[in-house]
Amino acid sequence: MVTITQPQLINNIAFNHQLTATKVFGLPAAQICRQNLARWLYASTSKYFNAIALANDLHFFVEGTNRETNEQQKYIEFRLDGPSITELSKNYYRLDVEINILWSFNQDDEDFHEPERLKGILMDAMQNICIYKFGDGPNDDDSLVNTLQLKQDQRIVTRVSNFGQVRKDARLMQGTVEGSFNMYHSC
Questions:
Q1: 59, 44 contact by CB (below 8 A)
Q2: Which of 19-28, 141-150, 155-164 shows the lowest mean pLDDT across its residues?
Q3: Strand partners, 173
Q4: C-alpha 113, offset from chain centre
Q5: Is 97 contained in some domain?
Q6: Other beta carbons within 10 Å of 109
Q7: Is residue 8 situated within a structural domain?
Q8: Residue 115 domain-assigned?
Q9: Which residue has the higher pLDDT, 49 or 28?
Q10: Model confidence over 8-25: pLDDT tens digits?
Q11: What residues pair up with 70 in beta bridges, in sequence order?
Q12: In a 3-state reduction of DSSP, which class is residue 13?
């Protein structure tokens, strides 16, 4: 870890179609780490589940984004809760997150097993996830930060919920697959 002893100011001004100005103040490495961990967790986990969706011909959405689902027969929606951060000792943290994937399937009369296939894909995807410094900021270099580990609870590792057909007037079936994860990290 690099510690910057004197504050430095870097000005980067680029002129294209619009003006962008970035000012980055030199910060200790631990502070840079703490300020970016939540974003790196979100970027890495959403990218991971997007790759799962692409590999299985599923449409992928991140909760809170505009989603056009009218023409999609099946899709998944990603949600991350957390991180909840506990400092275990000086600059050593445990981060806890919940990953929730909503699956949706517009029923047809041909394949009643498709919801079970979707659940199987998502249950298999709930495993340890590498966290990288993804982004386009000055501290984002795509390097490995650490690994988010699926919590190994003896009763439940991955939770599966079936909501069934959510409305009488729509043949939409939904459910969720959820996992609890943690990561220990020194900043």
A1: no
A2: 19-28
A3: 105, 165
A4: 27
A5: yes
A6: 6
A7: no
A8: yes
A9: 49
A10: 333 333 333 332 323 344
A11: none
A12: strand
Residue 111 confidence (pLDDT) above 80: no
Which range marks the domain in which residue 112 is found?
28-186
97 vs 17: CA distance, rounded Å: 39
CA dist 132 and 42 (Å) reads 10
C-alpha to C-alpha distance for 86 and 180, rounded to whole angstroms: 15
CB 171, CB 112: distance < 8 Å: no
Q: Where residue 34 sits, what CATH number does that domain have?
A: 3.30.2000.10
The pLDDT score that the predictor gives to residue 161 is 84
Which two three-digit tokens encode residue 160?
Answer: 């599966």
pLDDT reported for residue 27: 63
Handedness of CA 20, 42, 121, 164 (dihedral sign): negative
Neighbours of 59 (CB within 10 A): 17
Angle subtended at Cα 168 by Cα 167 and Cα 172, rounded to the nearest 5 degrees: 50
* Count of the separate structural domains present in the chain: 1
Determine the angle formed by the axes of helices 114-125 and 29-55, rounding to 10 degrees.
150
pLDDT given for residue 26 in this prediction: 58
The answer to whether position 44 is within a domain reads yes
